[in-house]
Amino acid sequence: MKRIEIDPITRLEGHGKITIFLNDEGDVENAFLQIPELRGFEKFVEGLPIEEVSRVVPRICGV
Amino acid sequence: MKLKVGIYWGAACGGCDVAILDTHEKLLDIAAKMDIYLWPIALDFKYDDVKKMEDGYLDAAIYSGAIRNSENEEIAILLRKKSKVMIALGACAHLGGIPGLANFYTRDEMLKRIYIDSESTINEEGVIPLESWNVKEGELDLPRFYNTVKTLDQVVDVEYYIPGCPPVPLQIYSALSLIWDDMLPPVGSVIGAGDKALCESCPRVKEEKTISEFKRIQQVLPDPEKCFLEQGLVCLGAATRSGCGARCIKSGVPCRGCYGPLDDVPDLGIKMLSAIASVLEPKEEKEIDDVLDTIVDPLRTFHRFSMPASILRRKKE
Fold first, then answer.
1. Average pLDDT, chain A
2. Which stretches of chain A drop beneath a pLDDT of 70?
């Protein structure tokens, strides 16, 4: 099975790669979008003083 | 001859890339001086294009974002190999930045909260991303999520640092112009920023600081003309490098240190604690402790952008 990797995907905010598997006829058998990115705001804003949260979460996305 | 440059982001928000774009018409000057060979946010080059380059092919690599996972580190090592000069752009690459707040937790604590316990997640089987996973067509892989967030210079040699979250666009431009004007300072320098503490260029009036209690900003109506610290509001301007134009202070909120420490100061947080200790009103140890206890969440305040670069580095395990 032939494999095509598009890494990284571009012109967007964030990280991603696409892996495409082609069968013997050259048709797409399956394709996967993978997000190789995680920073974890879900965890590290826990317990942060509420007045500081609004200064931290804009850094989720700066685009 | 035009300079060859690669621009990349590790664990970042894209704000540094946007700050480059926010140089507005100066972008035309940048485009006249530099050809770009990698810039995921804006141009369609792939990692393979970089891997095919000869070592040292690029004149400069500009890396924003922290080192959060193995992909961030691999691309940092790749760009280091392919570039004559490595530049850390922004607080995350420079100091660890906001993603560095994860260093108050372990990898397992992070993954459990994010993928299993979060209120918006239904994950009864407790699945977390694996580094390698077999599907029927073949194997898929993802980067390793590290236990500890690192700065760029903790994984590769870095020649220059452009600080800030985000860096001020014109400061980026002036830093880049040092490259094409061949005016780069000694290796290890912070470029595109000031060399004095932010306090010295702060527009607010400073009188005599004597602090008897720290307050939270919602508990007071701050005087817009007066020094935040003198009003009992923690402001990191005394320990933070200038160059931002006091943009937070002019917006009515105290400094949180995104431009990092001054030269020869290894740890912004400790420097700030020392600055605060010198302006407390009480002189007896017990009373000093009582005043310091009124600072809410001191570690994540003093090391808001710099935990991975600090002497502490991370929470003890």
1. 95
2. none
Phi and psi of B9, rounded to 5°?
A: -125, 130
B264-290, pLDDT tens digit by residue? 898 999 999 999 988 899 989 999 999
**For the whole model, what pTM was predicted?**
0.96
Phi then psi for residue B77, to 5 deg, are -65, -40
| pLDDT tens figures, B167-184 | 999 999 999 999 999 999
DSSP 8-state assignment for residue B48: H
pLDDT (tens digit per residue) in B48-80: 999 999 999 999 999 999 999 999 999 999 999
- Name A35's Cβ contacts closer than 8 Å, sequence gap at least 6: A14, A15, A16
CA distance B309 to B302: 12
Structurally, at CATH architecture level, domain B3-99+147-180 sits in 3-Layer(aba) Sandwich (3.40)
Biggest distance spanned by C-alpha atoms of chain B: 71
Q: Does A55 touch chain B (CB under 8 A)?
A: yes
- Exposed, middle or buried, B95 (CB in 10 Å: 0-12/13-18/19+)? buried
Q: Which of B41, B106, B118 to mutate to test the interface with A (most CBs of A within 10 A)?
A: B41
- Confidence band of B312 (pLDDT split at 50, 70, 90): very high
Residue B243, sorted as left (phi over 0), alpha (psi -120 to 50) or beta, turns out to be: left
Domain ranges of chain B: 3-99+147-180, 106-145, 198-302
CB–CB contact B297 A48 (8 Å): yes
- Is a pLDDT exceeding 90 seen at residue B208? no
Q: Which of A19, A44, A55 sits opposite B140 (nearest CB)?
A: A19
Q: What is the residue whose two structure tokens read 């912070």?
A: B190
Q: What is the ipTM of this complex?
A: 0.96
Q: What is the DSSP string of A36-60?
A: -----HHHHTTT--HHHHHHHGGGG
Question: With contacts defined as CB-CB under 8 Å, which chain A residues touch B253?
Answer: 55
What residues does each domain of chain A span?
Answer: 2-60
Please choose, from the candidates B87, B150, B100, B105, the residue with its C-alpha nearest in 3D space to the C-alpha of residue B256: B100
From the CA of A40, how many Å to the nearest CA of chain B?
A: 7
